[in-house]
Design goal:
Elements (H helix, E strand, L loop, with lengths): L1 H22 L6 H5 L7 H7 L6 E5 L5 H8 L3 E6 L2 H13 L5 E4 L5 H4 L4 E7 L9 H11 E12 L6 E2 L6 E2 L9 E6 L10 E6 L4 H10 L2 E9 L10 E3 L5 E3 L7 E8 L1
Parallel strand pairs: 1-2, 1-4, 2-3, 4-5
Antiparallel strand pairs: 5-13, 6-7, 8-9, 10-13, 11-12
Helix pairs in contact: 1-5, 7-8
Length: 266
C-alpha cells in the first residue's frame, strides 16, 4: 500500500537518526561490546543455545550487535535492517571485529527479494513487530527463509505493554490490545537516550499474541512454545525497578513485560 510505504519512509528516517545516538549510548555500550561483551540477553541465549556452525538470519538487526554476537558464537549470520545508517555501522563493526557476518539494507517484509538462501535459525527480538502493519507477509517471509526443520525464535515486548501511551512519562492506557489502525507518535529523545534532542517520528501497529501465533501457523510453522515473563532485560518503560537477576520489572506487576515464542518449519 502507498500509505504503508510513506509510514516506512518516516520510520526509516527516524531510525537513521537514532543510529549515531544509540551507538554512543550507555544502553548499547559499544565500547564493552567491541572488547568482547555479548549484547544478547538471557532469554534468547537459553532458547537458542549452541549456534556454532548454524546459518542464522537476524531480522530488524539495528546496527548489528546481536547479529555479531551470534557470529562470535560460531553462527554464520545475515542481518537485515531498514536503516542504511544501521547497516553501514554494522558492516564497519563486522570488519573491525574481523567477523564474517553479512548485512542487507531492506524492509524486513522484502527480505526474500534480497536474500535467497535458507537458514537453520531465523531470529528477531525486542521492539520489532510493532513496525509492521500486518504479520501475515512477515510470517510468510520467515517460512520462505527457513529450511525444513529450521527454528524461528522471537522474544518481544508483550502486547499489553503497547496499549499504553508513555510519551508524557506517565503511562496512560490508550490503544487497543490488537489495533488495526496505525499509531503515530512524535517525541523528543529515544529509548536509549531520553535526553537527546532528536525528534522521533514513528508509525506503529499493535499485534496481539493470537495474531503472532496464527500468522506463523498459517505460514507452515509449528509452535513449540509460547512463554510470558514479568521481567524485561531493558529499562525502557517508566517506573521500572532492577531485580536480583539484573532485569527490570514494575513495582506492582499486573501483566507480563515480555513474551517468547519458538517455532519449527514443518
Amino acid at each position: 500500500m502507498k500509505e504503508d510505504a510513506n509510514y516506512f519512509e518516516v520510520n526509516k528516517e527516524t531510525w537513521n537518526k537514532k543510529v549515531g545516538i544509540h551507538a554512543q549510548s550507555e544502553m548499547y555500550n559499544l565500547d564493552a561490546f567491541k572488547k568482547g561483551k555479548t549484547s544478547l540477553m538471557p532469554y534468547e541465549l537459553k532458547a537458542l543455545g549452541n549456534v556454532k556452525g548454524k546459518l542464522l538470519l537476524h531480522l530488524q538487526c539495528h546496527f548489528g550487535q546481536d547479529t555479531l554476537s551470534w557470529s562470535r558464537m560460531g553462527a554464520r549470520c545475515v542481518g537485515v535492517d531498514l536503516s542504511d545508517e544501521g547497516v553501514k555501522l554494522a558492516k564497519q563493526l563486522n570488519t573491525n571485529l574481523q567477523l564474517d557476518a553479512e548485512f542487507v539494507c531492506c524492509n524486513v517484509l522484502d527480505t526474500s527479494k534480497h536474500v535467497s538462501e535458507t537458514f537453520d535459525v531465523v531470529f528477531t527480538s525486542y521492539g520489532t513487530i510493532g513496525w509492521l502493519p500486518d504479520l501475515r507477509p512477515w510470517a510468510k517471509m520467515i517460512s520462505e527463509r527457513l529450511k525444513v526443520g529450521g527454528i524461528f525464535y522471537i522474544v518481544e515486548f508483550h502486547p499489553i505493554a503497547w496499549m499504553f501511551d508513555y510519551v508524557d512519562g506517565q503511562p496512560k492506557m490508550t490503544y487497543h490490545y490488537s489495533q488495526d489502525d496505525v499509531i503515530y507518535e512524535e517525541y523528543e529523545g529515544t529509548y536509549a537516550n531520553q535526553d537527546s534532542k532528536m525528534v522521533s517520528k514513528e508509525y506503529g501497529w499493535n499485534h496481539g499474541l493470537s495474531e503472532v501465533v496464527n500468522s506463523l501457523i498459517e505460514a507452515g510453522l509449528q509452535i513449540e512454545y509460547l512463554n510470558e515473563f514479568d521481567e524485561s532485560p531493558y529499562d525502557v518503560f517508566p517506573g521500572l525497578v532492577k531485580t536480583e537477576s539484573g532485569m527490570y520489572k514494575m513495582n506492582n506487576q499486573l501483566f507480563p513485560m515480555i513474551f517468547e515464542l519458538k517455532a519449527t518449519k514443518i
